[in-house]
Amino acid sequence: MSLLFVDGWFGPEPGDWQSVWCDRYPGSKRFEQDDWDEPVREDWVARLDEALAETAEPPVLVAHSLGCLTVLHWLAGGGDRPVRGALFVTPSDVEENREEALAGFAPIPRLTLPFPAVVAASSTDRWMTPARARSFSESWGARLIDAGPVGHLTGAHGPWPEGEKLLAPLL
């Protein structure tokens, strides 16, 4: 089973939970964006599509923050490569948090996902309120999990074994 990690704004951090998981699961892959600091939706979506084209089998997407929106915009734009499932971890609400660098990712697509998905939302995430996470999860047809008071689950959080329990059913 392959995992494809779709990182968010500013990209990978040394020792973050995604790095730990990528090392732990054979066949996992992280791909690079051309510009992690000044994201352009069309470029990020194109890089995701390229990474999906290179997978030997339908992967489970593990998306974090702006990476979640990258997946949604890929689907909204007609992305049709096979995907087994997705774990969306602390998606960013670029509609409520009006960060100029992320404006191109608004509005957030509200579409029914064509694969099983879980949304792990934090009760203390400054980028998405629990109520908004619930609303988006419902529109996507994804199962919502309260990850607790874990903030935005950045690299400082560590390996996040609780998240692996959310990933397991998608594998």
TrEMBL record:
Keywords: Hydrolase. Pfam families: Ser_hydrolase. The keyword Hydrolase applies. Gene3D superfamilies: alpha/beta hydrolase. One of its GO terms (molecular function) is hydrolase activity. This is RBBP9/YdeN family alpha/beta hydrolase. It comes from Amycolatopsis speibonae.
